[in-house]
Protein: DUF1524 domain-containing protein
Organism: Arthrobacter jinronghuae
Amino acid sequence: MTSLRTKALSLVALLALGLVGCTPVIDDGSDPAPSSATQPATGSAEPADRSAPAEPAAPAEPAAAGTALDQLAGIPIKGRAPKTGYDREQFGPAWADTDHNGCDTRNDILARDLVDIVYKDGTQECVVASGTFLDPYTGTTIAFVRGNTTSTAVQIDHVVALSDAWQKGAQQLSAEERRQFANDPLNLMAADGPANGAKSDGDAATWLPANKAFRCEYVARQTAVKAEYRLWMTQAEHDAIAAVLSGCPDEPVPARDGSVPAAVAAAAGAGQPAEAAQPAPAVEPAPAAPAAEPAPAAPAGTVYANCTAVKAAGVAPIRPGDAGWDPKFDGDGDGVGCTS
């Protein structure tokens, strides 16, 4: 009995000391760590009573593939490079026959963009003598007649001006690529002469067609040309184009042959406003480097013997109204003399 009682007392003592299947509890003032039964497993959902963070705002819908907006998103944005070294001859002779059809580029574009065309006799339907032009820049109809004093009514515009291209990447193109650029139908359009003169070598941040019906097509074409030749845009130019295209987000990338959609040309000729006509974006402040360096003005009464003298004076190319102008400088009747 004594032995059994002793054993029982010993067992009670052991249990009191927590030595059988238990851990002593030591109160040191700290919070106990949660047991594995109450600690949430890694990666498990938050407790139901905890508020979930607010959902992020839905991102803007990306531009549809194949649209001008989609293409615009891929154009690099950089500052304008210096105009140093620019010369029209950097882009090859004016109006070359790059497609080898026997006709120069100027007449190819006139034949593409005019209607009711009459060709000059003996030119194998190359030289456009007359025609009717539905100008998309102004929305007016122009009766074109070839001649030293009349051809300037319809000029051929580089949609992306050569000087603008030079300052935005064309310096890195090969001579042949620049020649193709200057004669690419995608980058050429017949245009009202005064409107083309007012545009000069401006980009979309400084000039847009007066005919609002054509602005979407116009900036889409500029975007396509810059994408084709790996050129960049300034921030102001990019923003101006994006502002126009925001009103016509489904504007497609222009046809590779550069043709003007018939419906647009017809609307331009009739002077009809486009359904999605857009106001011109605000003109951004001029960049630090000027977009163009005007030729020095020649004094009234100046006479040049030939194009060599015009170039030596630093006033080439020369146009009607410039001091020293003579129709003999404009052999192809395009309103621009001494270009080659």
Remarks:
- Residues 68-283 form one domain.
- Residues 12 and 18 are 10 Å apart (CA to CA).
